[in-house]
């Protein structure tokens, strides 16, 4: 089996409403690049990556010369072909490697007629638990704003009723910390017995993070995620608060993981199948974490069903996955895979059991959302369309005003 071609299609998938985060917003849609790797036996493997609201089509198709004639089974050679660590200093291809690796694992599974998790060691769980992943948000076409504690609790209550979540993650860093503390504590009061996690995307100062962490220490927290930026900042904060700290921003490769092992800054590493360069890299990182008693969770980077499948296969085989995974998935209005969106049952999604990744493209949906991308184009992930001219600093001091209703954006 040899690779004969690689194709890329950029799609825009509508969200129920635009989602706010500390660095800007998801502008009412996710822009994702769908990757198809074809082989000489007629199989097509699927991959996917994001790009901060931008297309990655040109970068993906530029890999054709690297991939033609490559055997999809040769995954380690693939890693050095695409993302050589020294050559990669001039052109960071880690996320491109991840998308191609997804497709190759999909191809291998189809060729052998086995699911991806059988190639990764065999599943030890049939479904993966997920957190509710709550955002402050602008109003959408059929969705209200989320700005006040009452609106946040109402939104979380609706998601819990629909999907069965028992873990709730609040994406913060939008409003002043004292206000978001009020919102977070309102969640805790509304859902006694459920677990909580808070992620302000690294924009708090060390002192603000200390105050916030100590103010929530009495709650049922999974962890305090990326309150400050940098491993040294997290190390100092860890000495000041009695909470597990987590990151998906400053431990995203093996050098950083080694630094965290030698000088502990975080207790939980959120593994992202894209950020780390593929499922296999996440498995290796999880083994290191297991050895040094670091917790692991599965991170979400705005995935559609293809990358979600990689997260599910990863979650299926990790013995040390003791935390619910993150997913933006329930904020999506649709998907590009056959059968529509994968469903939650009791806060969990079943691991696909079909060959390879176990998901296939719905060609009509792919064309529909490719046309939507052509109509709307990309957007700057690190800008908030509701605050023209604003940009965040780290640490941030210029917060959105929680007293002002959030207006719909186009």
UniProtKB/TrEMBL annotation:
InterPro entries: DgoD-like, Enolase-like_C_sf, Enolase-like_N, Enolase_C-like, Mandelate_racemase_C, Mandelate_racemase_N_dom
Pathway: Carbohydrate acid metabolism; D-glucarate degradation; 2,5-dioxopentanoate from D-glucarate: step 1/2
Enzyme's top EC category: lyase
Domain of life: Bacteria
Domain Mandelate racemase/muconate lactonizing enzyme C-terminal: 149-244
Catalytic activity: D-glucarate = 5-dehydro-4-deoxy-D-glucarate + H2O
PANTHER family reported for this sequence: D-GALACTONATE DEHYDRATASE-RELATED, GLUCARATE DEHYDRATASE
Name used for this protein in its record: glucarate dehydratase
Organism name: Actinomadura vinacea
